[in-house]
Design brief:
It is built from eight helices and twelve strands. It is of the alpha+beta class and about 240 residues long. It has two domains: about 80 residues, Winged helix-like DNA-binding domain superfamily/Winged helix DNA-binding domain (Arc Repressor Mutant, subunit A); about 140 residues, Riboflavin kinase-like (Elongation Factor Tu (Ef-tu), domain 3, Beta Barrel). The structure holds cytidine-5'-diphosphate.
Length: about 240
């Protein structure tokens, strides 16, 4: 994994971040001292202090130093870094049957609506996905780590959507993967279970963009606006 995907910190720093998360620093501020922390990660006070500084510089941790220690809280970016690690482990131990991709909601140029509602596709969605999609695609701009993880979808068997043609032109084939969509970082928030990732079958189409279709408007179902973070969990068929 590149530094960028960990928010430019190393594994030693991530180990500190994980420890702070175990202590509760995801849910609010916790108080600790560098000597305490050093002992717990088997490092000197100075080393512990340096790691905290790196985490703060990378925007993964907020710190408030007081006379007898410091108050620490993990930021949203910090939580995303930990969640990335978690997804990697999930892949190692649970196989490729699930791939969780993280991204930010974006607006496209209104093309999704046009393609999704074409009768040649709509008929197949009804038959093969079992529903008539909301007219449009929800676009997510993937994080760097998720962009790389996206390749794992190739090991899954997608639902094929055939190409077709009318008098004027031909429309290319696509593939759909069943997926769940949830707001990131809200483990208890209800996820939307019945969506599909849709992608053109062969393309060098922007790998950083993921498009999702669903029977309902996901922005309404999940209360999403542009730049909100979502986790799209793709399941094997
Ligand atoms: O291309 P653009 O994102 O502008 O729009 P679209 O694909 O035509 O979709 C219309 C709107 O519905 C967009 O704001 C999508 O993000 C949203 N949408 C949604 O919330 N849930 C879906 N299942 C499909 C689209």
């Amino acid at each position: 994994m590149s530094n960028a995907s960990r928010g430019a910190v190393g594994y030693d720093e991530l180990a500190v971040l994980r420890l702070l998360a175990i202590e509760g620093a995801l849910d609010g501020e916790i108080k600790t001292s560098c000597s305490d922390l050093g002992e717990r990660v088997d490092a000197s006070t100075q080393t512990a202090s340096r790691r905290l500084q790196h985490l703060e510089d990378a925007g993964l941790l907020e710190r408030d130093t007081v006379s007898d220690g410091q108050w620490l809280e993990i930021t949203d970016d910090g939580e995303r870094s930990l969640r990335n690690e978690y997804e990697e482990y999930r892949r190692i131990f649970e196989g490729v049957a699930r791939v969780a991709l993280l991204g930010a909601v974006t607006s496209g140029m209104g093309e999704g609506r046009h393609y999704i509602t074409l009768p040649g596709y709509m008929e197949q969605f009804r038959e093969r996905l079992g529903y008539e999609p909301f007219p449009g695609t929800l676009n997510a701009e993937l994080t760097d780590a998720s962009m790389r993880r996206r390749g794992a979808l190739e090991a899954m068997d997608p639902i094929p959507i055939d190409g077709w043609e009318d008098e004027e032109r031909t429309y290319g084939p696509a593939v759909c993967y069943p997926a769940t969509v949830a707001r990131s970082g809200e483990g208890d928030a209800p996820a939307y279970p019945d969506a599909h990732v849709i992608a053109p079958e062969r393309t060098h189409h922007d790998e950083g963009q993921l498009e999702v279709i669903a029977p309902d408007k996901l922005r309404d179902e999940l209360d999403l606006e542009d730049d909100d973070h979502v986790t799209i969990t793709v399941r094997g068929v």
